[in-house]
Amino acid sequence: MLGRLAGFLHSHRRAVLYVTVAGAVIAGVFGSSVAQHLSPYGATDPATQSVQATNRFQAATNREIDPGVVALVNLRGTVRTKAAQDRVRQVAAQLRRGPDVTSVVSYYQTHNPDLVSRDGASTYVLAYFKPRSDTTLKNDAQQIENSFAGQRDVKLGGQLVANAQVNTQVSHDLEHAELLAFPFVFLLSLLFFRSLVAALLPPLLGGLAIVATFFALRIVASFVDLSVFALNLTTGLGLGLAIDYSLFMVSRYREESAKSGFGIEALRRTLQTAGRTIAFSSLTIAAAIASLTLFPQRFLYSMGIAGALVALIAATLALLVLPALLAVLGPRVNALAPNWLARAADRDARPAESGFWYRLSRVVMRRPAMIAIASATFLIALGIPFFTQVKFTSVDATVLPTSASARQVNDALNAQFPPNRGAPLDVVVGAPAGSPAVNTLEARINSLPDVSAVEPAQPAGPRMSLIPVAPIQTPLSTATQNLVRQVRAVKTPFYLGVAGETAAYLDLEHSLAVHLPAVLAVVVATTLIILFLMTGSVILPIKAVIMNALGLCAMFGILVLVFQDGNLEGLLGYQSLGALDATQPILLFAVGFGLATDYGVFLLSRIKEARDGGASDRDAVAIGLERTGRVVTAAALLFAVALGAFSTSEIVFVKELGVGAVLAVLIDASIIRALLVPSLMMLLGPLNWWAPAPLRRLHDRIGLREAGPSVVAT
What we know:
The chain is α+β, with helices and mostly antiparallel strands. The protein has helices at 2-11, 13-31, 49-61, 82-96, 107-110, 134-147, 159-193, 196-199, 201-220, 230-260, 264-290, 298-329, 339-342, 356-366, 368-389, 405-416, 436-446, 478-488, 501-535, 539-564, 569-572, 584-612, 617-644, 652-684, 693-702; strands spanning 69-74, 101-105, 122-129, 154-157, 392-393, 425-429, 451-454, 458-459, 465-471, 496-499, 580-581. The strands form three sheets. Strands 6, 7, 8, 9 and 10 form a five-stranded antiparallel beta sheet that branches. Helix 10 (230-260) packs parallel to helix 12. The two termini are 27 Å apart.
């Protein structure tokens, strides 16, 4: 199949490139506005109590349960002055004119002292919105924020403003990451490809993959509510995979061209070998990341959709556009090579037994047991902090940089006003406000430990009310989480549900724990199946899963040391939240597992190719490692640059994603590939390729492979 594809692409190479250029222009025009059609973070599960309680309240009142915008007004004097009262009324009137605003609350309406700072020099006004989609409310908040531009005595915060500012920050971080990554990718590509023409191919393919995925996401966003954070993964993963696939295709094309010349035969062998491996790689990565779509949280399923799309699109471009481009370039793929790099241009076709990676594998295979045990022990030791001291948190305004108004308002409310009034427990009860049953419930909740204040019940229709409960401790703290559990455990003859920030976090943890086993099963099962179809072995896929788990274990442990414990705050430019975002380990598991399998597929394909060509098990491992060593190392470094650019983000959990993905790639491309793979393959010997007779027959029937034996590269 791939051989026939090579013939078609060689014959129609220019037509393929013309179609690609036209498609890129259309995708660029239509997909450039994708960020405007995406929603905020999104970590709720519709099946949880906090969401259901919120929906009940909103259905009864046609109002969001929590204020969407908090306008902090710095007064000239104190709240007792007429000038202060007039200014606050101006702010409230301006908020009422905002889109979808249903009510506005200020101190002068309620005379609630909680709305006034301790020094009396500032107050805040609350704006409540009609129930609308997250995207609509984000746009509403952005419009209100724009209307207050230039009013220095007013700072806007609240959940909706924070969401709008996060979207803006993500777009800015994407542009910054791209501007930072592409020049470094090009310079490193020039070093590894050793010619200017070849070095342009990875950024070109990466740009096409990103543009095409943005186009696809723009279409998907018309039917599915997607999170704006999917763009971060699209950019980093698209550029990284395009780099990987370009390196493997171009390196193999050069290798085959050294044998048969720059013609259709070299292109055919490149697609039958490197192209086949890219197909397997993209399937494993897409399957691993697509498993995130099993989660109901918008942030995670959006990452699953975007990650699977960009993996498949990058592979499609590598299998269709890149071969056509290589066919057009021919020997000019090596053109414009600096002299100091041109002298190394023949390394792709050098004898396998003469390279560094060949010699390293021989050293490792002399003491395989010792090296395997030492490597595994080191990775497990790195992972110990994750299993013994990890803490989790959720996303709020504190993830924004201190220059953002939503962050400033959040910090001011915590420091200058009565504590935790802005993040209460929202107790929704199925009884009217002021009734004896609700009064009794208020008194009972007020008697619970860790309760700071219980506000009088607010009417929510004739048969429902809302009781705001302010905790003593901060939101998400252990004490406040226990308070949520205690309120939920109160027995009443009517409906009682608890919403709010802490309740939503508890529900998030529960939802993630419920769905995680299915995601793990999908990731492991698809990896085992795809690697079995590729290798015909049962042992190699199982071993790959175990090694991936060791690498991810080490990566998670380092993330705890860096982001939870606050190490490298100065270097990476962030303020530790004292915990990891609860969704990040799951996202990084799927992404890291897929990327780790990616490099494993490239190595195993060359080992199997050498073994099928007649090499012994020991020689096949050494030849495979030598043939992929330099290329995989280059791909890993380039991938680290592409994803590492997101460590410059102003949002801390985007930094976690970037650093975590870089760690997963580098650990797999170094310790696992260079030490664990050759040592374990040496220990297992022929057992590496074992499969039960029924599975061997199944592989002979449906196993994916190219016809004809490969020749051992020497």
